[in-house]
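Workshop exercise sheet. Pairs work together: one partner reads the sequence aloud, the other fills in the structure field after running the prediction. Swap roles for the next sheet.
Pair: D.N. / O.F.
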Amino acid sequence: MHNVVKLLDKVSQRYYPSRMLTFEPAHIFKVLQVIDSNSKASRATLIGELGLGEGSIKTLVKHMKMNYLIETSKAGMRLTNKGKALFSKISDATPSETEIEECSITLSRFNHAILVKGLAGEVGSGIEQRDAAIKIGALGATTLVFRENSLFTSDRSNDRPIKDQKLVGLISEKLRPENGDVVIIASAGDRKTADLAAKRAALETISNHEKHS
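Structure field:
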């Protein structure tokens, strides 16, 4: 997992004197995911999946090619060996995701949950994850930790078990958390933003771990 976020940051850096960029590491994460699952992914595919404009997608693809993460052809895009290795590390750190219906602990109609393996110790009150989600356009994020075979709120000063059994059942089925794992649920006004916000909050958690390791 080491240096995963550092490499994503490098790919999303602005190259002087280019314009300000409209994408960031969470978008790179999403592109790797889309191309891994779709060998015929095109720029049009990425526009639809990420909600960015054609110019932004063109620049994003250029940056990923410059860093040898993808190759392009008339048939579509594919991950290079370096791209596959990076996505494998990300997938190991965040092995499962799912959409979540609006419930007592979510903030909007559209909610996206992501599992972060083994980093419950990196989570404080969940403010960092919430702020990371907000910076990409979400309304916020709810961070949970899995310990003692149960889901708890992440606020160590007042952590409490999640009583919504329907939610607990869904997370257990879709994400399969184990003790020490983190579950981040990002809420936004649309599905794409909720998805990207969850990824951004997960990367924030991984980044904290990388800095301390």
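Discussion prompt: The beta strands are 70-73, 76-79, 97-100, 110-116, 140-147, 150-153, 182-188. What would you look at next?
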